[in-house]
Design brief:
Helices cover about 75% and strands about 0% of the residues. The protein starts with 5 loop residues before the first helix and ends in a 6-residue tail after the last helix. Among the domains are: about 70 residues, no CATH class; about 70 residues, no CATH class. By secondary structure, the protein is an all-alpha fold. It is globular. It comes from Neolewinella aquimaris.
């Protein structure tokens, strides 16, 4: 049956629960077969580990019709589709190439505009170009329509543009603290929240504010504060407001992180699998986050399968941060599934090819896993050479006071020295306990370091 309905099945496997919830709530289908198919589509979209086959006794043309209807229905509310349309019109207008049908649709969009649109700023800018186009051609009536719109919403545009530029300045503090565990960003929380809750602000600014508020809340572990806003946009997506597949996938990815921080792991994994269902620019980022969680929960087989499926994305990405993260998690998955020789070889090849990028971006994550691979392969001498070659202990000491720091590198260095006979049993075990107890009790750092120590057990015998 899957072969017979292969295209339809492939299409529905990419659909997301909020998309199908919207379709279920906004259809006027009367045919019982089409309704039954849509209900099955909605059920399958909510599942991440099971699939109920479609009824092949139903006329295949009904599947074809329903797929076309679903695509058209979702495209009609997709704000990114609308943005692409605006960009196309902008190019056509400034090159004097717009045709009558495009003009008709643009003028209709003005008449039916409901403020605030998601991409209000781009719509306003396109109309600014269009006003020039009309004026020089003495099309007075259409020019008056466009001019009136621009005058009516001039203050709204200025406010949105000012907010957009201000968000760029805020982002520097937010990203600095999130990526480097330094700096401060809490002072922006209230203003970001005000932008997100401002119903008169355009959707793009509200979305950008929420993303940055999410970072700030994660930085300061204010998880309940951001959960309230996530529930708000959850309802909006179900109603088809401010929707695109990209925005919805980003929501799933952030929701995964939120539930992981709250230690609601099953819910986190559920949203994680939803976040990797679609391929987009940030796909590898979502894969890395889900793989990291699966590995932390000792679900290494699932993590390895997930990472192997993202190999092409890792090869083609220009984002070194994501690529190095992928490599580290792939090495960890290989180690945890007993592929020790493969892990060592892969890590060595990657270090040889990308040493500058590793040292610049995610050296701590990469070297923690790579050194562990060398030790698991019985190569403490090689591990100590790598530590000296890349001055890892000096790098680690410089990072030791940053929030979220884990003493994995010095622990692995002492483990290598111990296995080489350079430390006595008493010295090594005393140092090992000291590092564990140096982390605050009941903290996320202590929990993560304890999990890391469990991975060392085969080397401590």
């Amino acid at each position: 049956m899957r072969d017979r309905l292969r295209k339809f099945t492939a299409f529905t496997e990419r659909l997301l629960p909020h998309e199908t919830a919207y379709l279920m709530g906004h259809h006027q289908l009367e045919d019982a077969d089409r309704i039954a198919i849509l209900e099955r589509v909605e059920r399958n979209s909510r599942e991440v580990s099971s699939f109920l086959p479609y009824d092949e006794s139903i006329d295949k043309r009904k599947y074809h019709h329903l797929r076309h209807w679903m695509e058209k229905k979702l495209a009609a509310i997709d704000v990114d589709e609308r943005h692409a349309w605006l960009l196309r019109l902008e190019r056509l207008i400034v090159t004097d190439a717009i045709d009558q049908e495009d003009e008709r649709q643009l003028l209709r969009a003005i008449r039916h505009y409901e403020h605030p649109g998601f991409y209000f700023m781009k719509f306003y800018e396109v109309l600014g170009h269009y006003r020039h186009f009309l004026q020089i051609r003495m099309r007075y009536r259409d020019h008056a329509t466009v001019h009136d719109f621009l005058m009516t919403y001039a203050d709204h545009y200025a406010r949105s543009k000012e907010g957009y530029d201000r968000l760029h300045a805020v982002t520097q503090d937010v990203v600095e603290q999130y990526a480097r565990r330094g700096g401060e960003s809490w002072q922006w929380a209230e203003s970001l929240e005000q932008v997100f809750l401002d119903g008169d602000m355009d959707g793009l600014n509200r979305y950008l504010a929420l993303v940055r508020l999410t970072f700030v809340s994660f930085n300061h572990r204010e998880y309940d504060r951001i959960l309230v806003h996530f529930d708000r946009i959850d309802r909006a997506f179900r109603d088809g407001r401010n929707y695109s597949p990209r925005l919805l996938t980003n929501y799933y990815g952030n929701r995964m992180l939120l539930h992981a921080y709250r230690r609601e792991y099953e819910r986190a994994i559920y949203y994680g699998w939803l976040s990797v269902r679609s391929l987009n620019y940030d796909h590898l980022f979502y894969v890395n986050n889900l793989a990291s969680l699966l590995l932390r929960l000792d679900r290494e087989t699932e993590a390895l399968e997930l990472l192997q499926g993202a190999k092409q994305a890792a090869k083609t990405t220009v984002n070194s941060y994501n690529r190095i993260g992928y490599t580290a998690f792939y090495l960890e998955a290989l180690l945890k599934t007993g592929r020790l020789e493969q892990a060592e070889s892969y890590g060595e090849s990657y270090l040889r090819a990308y040493r500058k990028e590793i040292l610049r971006y995610r050296w701590h994550l990469f070297f923690t896993v790579y050194l562990l691979a060398l030790l698991r392969r019985g190569q403490p001498t090689r591990a100590l050479k790598v530590i000296r070659q890349f001055k890892l202990l000096d790098r680690d000491a410089a990072a030791a006071n940053k929030p979220g720091y884990l003493p994995t590198i010095p622990t692995l260095a002492e483990l290598a020295r111990w296995r080489e006979g350079l430390l006595t049993d008493k010295e090594f075990h005393a140092s090992f306990r000291k590092r564990l107890h140096s982390l605050p009790e009941a903290s996320e750092e202590r929990e993560r370091f304890a999990a890391f120590c469990r991975d060392l057990e085969p080397l401590l015998q």
